[in-house]
Amino acid sequence: MTFSRKIERFLAEDPSPATTVMRLSTRSLILICSITFAAFLVSTAVAIFFCRYTRRKFLSNVSSEGKAVTLEHLKGPRTFTYKELRKATRNFDETMILGSGGSGAVYKGILSPSGIVIAVKRPRHKSGSGEKAFVAEASSVSQIRHRNLLQLLGWCQEENNYLLVYEYMSNGSLDGWLFPGRRRHPNGPNYKRSGVLPWELRSSILAGVAAALDYLHEDWVQCVLHRDIKSSNVMLDADFNPHLGDFGLARLMDHEKLGETTLVAGTLGYMAPEIPFTGKATKESDVYSFGILVLEVVCGRRPLNLQAEGPDEEFVLLQSVWRAHEAGDILRAVDMRLLKRSESSTDTTTQESLDTQKVDTLKSADECKMAHLLHLGLLCCLPNPEARPSMRLVRQVIMDLQSTAPEDTTKLSTPYLLPALPLSRPSGCYSLIRLDRLSSTSTSVCSEAPLKSL
């Protein structure tokens, strides 16, 4: 018989008062421990339920009707009052509008008494959809930090007023510099002082946007799909550094769950051809949109020429560049203002300090880089999504071109990072509408091989 069994038998058989008290104390201790443990289990269950309930409320983006949307779970940017933003924008005066689009208007604001200049985005709708867009954009960019992403400074949410506050970009959007007709203030001093956007700045702007997208796709804790990359969403600061903005359509996805998104969004002309068929936004669809942006910046033309009247006029920019490539003269697609500017600037330089041979070297180097960027833009817009390069490879190619010296003719002629481009536009997996010819063609075979990302 074990020692514990002997103790139990002794307590059961011994009728003395001391033994009785000991037996009662043992039972009380067991009862107290049982009650305490049960209370602990109940309180733990209540705490877990409360945490899950609170998390579901945050993830629902928009609360039920009559209740305010909350962003208290976000950290970083500050909260502004509606009163101070109304004062900063002169009661949202039309003269303070910097730009407007489908998602709302952006106003210039000056905070008192600091005098800090800000940009205030006011959603177009005050309904539930406006609240949802407000939360989506704030949630997308509140925690993201990159030198080429537009910085969110804060927000305001009072009753039905949902406002986002961004850093102010004094040189406006990229499309205003590419297309004078898109300028809201065409007589602004910045436009008069700078004139045509030079090649060096255009190349630098594309490098900055590529770096931002590479960060969003690969380097942040979650993969961010922007879904609306276009020139009007690229903002320029005082030094013409690019800042990718307008995250109203952006979505945060876990890297291992990228294939699960079924959110269709974008802008006609920039949207990848597979999206209407697959219903999915992906990294590859962002790459396609960036490719269109590259063509737009180098060619100085909009993705779709809505002013085209006859069948012979170029309506779709992408198809126009493919034709130039197939004809063996891709430089004919380049913005003529760039080529004229290059000629005039090199002529002046010749008179001052350079001999004719070096001028020809500089001119040919710029033209080589323009041709290579058009080459890269076409690669990004291949019909087969799997054949498009990753944004990491795209960024590395652009950086490599920027760092190549004009005298390095071997590297300029064949950049080692730039994949080969088909001699003609390959067939894709999806039916494409040939808008310029007003006829449709269908294909079902993907002929190009996937490009390996670095």
Automatic annotation (TrEMBL):
Q: Which InterPro entries match?
A: Kinase-like_dom_sf (IPR011009), L-type_Lectin-RKs (IPR050528), Prot_kinase_dom (IPR000719), Protein_kinase_ATP_BS (IPR017441), Ser/Thr_kinase_AS (IPR008271)
Keywords, in A-Z order: ATP-binding, Kinase, Membrane, Nucleotide-binding, Serine/threonine-protein kinase, Transferase, Transmembrane, Transmembrane helix
Positions with a binding annotation for ATP: 121
Q: Which residues cross the membrane?
A: 29-50
Q: Which residues form the Protein kinase domain?
A: 92-417
Q: Does the keyword DNA repair apply?
A: no
Q: Does the keyword Iron-sulfur apply?
A: no
Which family does the UniProt entry place this protein in?
In the C-terminal section; belongs to the protein kinase superfamily. Ser/Thr protein kinase family.
Q: Which PANTHER family match?
A: PTHR27007
By what name is this protein known? Protein kinase domain-containing protein
Q: Which source organism?
A: Physcomitrium patens
Tell me the organism's taxonomic lineage. Eukaryota, Viridiplantae, Streptophyta, Embryophyta, Bryophyta
Gene name in the database record: LOC112284569
